Amino acid sequence: MDFVTIQVDERKFSAQRHVFAESQFLSEVVAIDIFAEEPQNMRRHFYNVDADPVLFEHIVRYLRRGVLPIFYDESKGHDYAMYVALLEEARYFGIPRLITWLENNDFLKAVSHEYITKEIYKIDQLSTSMTGRRTADVNVTCIPTWTKNKIYVCPRGIPVHRGNRHACGRACNNAKGEAKDVYDEEMILRAVVVERRTVFDGEACVEGVE
């Protein structure tokens, strides 16, 4: 196999010569046999390239298999600074497909979120909603909130009738007479539980790869 080595700063990257064919710049670099005067079995295919070794690693990774890069962290989101830096390298090395992927922000298609929202009216149900095993791609957030709630008051003051108008019978209705129903206002603690699932579409990163 015809392997070549490219040195970028203090790092060395080795790959078969054909790996660099998609890059206009690199394909021309590795096509030059700088030791053509030596016997074939003694020639060294070693080249120096002026680039950022961290970014060049992603360039070589892409050129090897054609898998488009994603720089995404669940807590920070997409690393746009890395995308911009890699775009400039892709332009420098002349890699059209990678340039298009980065210029069009197509990497946004590879990661999406699905949301499930539940409103909890009884706080004792909250622990049930928040506990349990979930896969690492699921994030659960609880948003507590205080709301005002009208509570029906029994005309006779019977505690078990409080909050339940239909619990009052004839005796309660007679005690109320022609008066309107009476309600108290109470502050009720409720919560909204948001479950966010991160969905990764691997097909978006290999679209067009044969």
UniProtKB/TrEMBL annotation:
It comes from the Eukaryota. It comes from Delitschia confertaspora ATCC 74209. InterPro entries: SKP1/BTB/POZ_sf. This is BTB domain-containing protein.
